[in-house]
Amino acid sequence: GDPPLVLGLETSCDETAVAVVDGAGHVRAHHVLSQVQAHADYGGVVPEVAARQHIQHLDGLIRKTLDDAKIGFDALDAIAATSGPGLIGGLIVGVMTAKAMAAATGLPFIAVNHLEGHALSARLTEEIAFPYLLVLMSGGHCQILAVEGVGRYRRYGSTIDDAAGEAFDKTAKLLGLGYPGGPAVEREAGRGNPDRFKLPRPLMGTPGCDFSFSGLKTAVRQTAEALVAEKGAMDTADRADLCAGFQAAVTDCLADRVGHAVARFQEDYPDFRAKPAPLVVAGGVAANTAIRRRLTDVATSAHMVFHAPPLEYCTDNGAMIAWAGVEILKTDPARDDMAVGARPRWP
Ligand code: KG4
Ligand code: ZN
Questions:
Q1: Where in the numbering of this chain does the Gcp-like domain appear (predicted)?
Q2: Is residue 275 over pLDDT 90?
Q3: Which listed ligand is nearest to 164 at the C-alpha?
């Protein structure tokens, strides 16, 4: 494979993930250790539990990843780690581990913004040229960006309250579907009738590209409470119909906001009126089939080409962090972020 060869660590939330990626986008090895079990009883991620899990598993996972890639540190060109935004305890574990390895080996350390990792993840498996329109939907973030290049992003909109994934997680918790909520809600929604409950579509029909999901979440809670008050408990069909209604509302909102972003993108980059520009989705919620299908339609009717990373690179993983390290080194070969620390907030 082509240089640079980069080791990437991801510890910003509830997966401990490590990967080795080369300059041609070949993933030489990657491992994701989910902490879902450790957090399941709490119905969400507990920061202190997450940090301890990262400490416990990270060095073993690095060893295993290097072994699987059949390389030692001497073959590497850099060590990258997610340095923010995220939960501070986990970020410190990843950043300090990466810096310690960098200091011991003399390799440069690359501090990767988690969102930049998601933003560039589609270029790991496909040749997608800049600029492109990116819809980033995860548990912690919901943004639409024009991606002009590595480190060059223009934000068109973001959530004013909950992230899309957070809305899925809260809905799942409310309906007793466990954590993480996205896959469970999608499964239930597939069996339900999306038209039975009338749920709000916050901000839909208003100008701009911002999102809002907290009103929808409240409406789901009130609907569930009304059902319980009426008949004592919700049955399987109620739950499926509510999930279907919720997913349809989220999908409508996303399609509406992305529609506005497409118009703005085509104004900002007029060259792309002639040739089809890429519409890229990333983040855990991009794993949702109904949402993918709908955004594919939005792209097609705007003469854009829809791209989504393979599912394993949509949710948090180390390959996207290693790949961001590759992209950063290709753009700025002298970069070394030894002076950069963990940053829980990093816009
Ligand atoms: O990108 P990610 O792994 O972590 C963050 O950076 O937040 O995204 C996780 C989020 C969770 O909120 C999860 O419920 C959501 O992505 N998610 C889904 C699906 N799979 C994961 N949401 C909707 N449908 C899915 N199939
Ligand atoms: Zn993420």
A1: 27-323
A2: no
A3: 1
Rounded to an integer, what distance in angstroms lies between the CA atom of residue 281 and that of residue 186?
Answer: 17
Q: Tell me: the pLDDT tens digits for 157-195?
A: 999 999 999 999 999 999 999 878 999 999 999 999 999
Q: Which ligand is nearest to the CA of 39?
A: 1
Q: Does the beta carbon of 171 sit less than 6 angstroms from any atom of ligand 1?
A: no
CB of 117 within 6 A of ligand 1: the answer is no
User: How many whole angstroms from 285 Cα to the centroid of ligand 2?
Assistant: 10
Superfamily of domain 130-308: ATPase, nucleotide binding domain (3.30.420.40)
Give yes or no on whether 6-121+313-331 and 130-308 have one common fold: yes
Verify whether ligand 1 is closer than 6 Å to residue 10 (CB atom).
no
**Residues lying with their CB under 5 A of ligand 2, a single-atom ion:** 138, 316
- Work out the mean pLDDT of the chain and round it to a whole number: 95
Per-residue pLDDT, averaged over 235-246, amounts to: 97
Phi, psi of 229 (to 5 degrees): -65, -35
DSSP letter (8 states) at residue 29:
E
Structure tokens at 11: 């510890």
- On whether the CB atoms of residues 19 and 322 are closer than 8 A, the answer is yes
Segment 9-49, tens digit of pLDDT:
999 999 999 999 999 999 999 999 998 888 888 877 899 99
Rounded to an integer, what distance in angstroms lies between the CA atom of residue 169 and that of residue 243?
11
**pLDDT over 70 at 273, yes or no:** no
CATH number of 6-121+313-331: 3.30.420.40
Q: Which residues of 234-266 are buried (b: 16+ CB within 10 A; e: fewer)?
A: beeebbbbbbbbbbbbbbebbebbbebbbebbb
- From ligand 1's centre to the CA of 165, what distance in Å? 5
- Report the pLDDT averaged over residues 44-55: 92
* Numbered residues of the known binding site for substrate: 136-140, 169, 182, 186, 288
Is the shortest distance between the CB of 53 and ligand 1 below 6 Å?
Answer: no
Reported as a single tens digit per residue, the pLDDT across 131-149 is 999 999 998 889 999 999 9
In the chain, where are the structural domains located? Answer: 6-121+313-331, 130-308
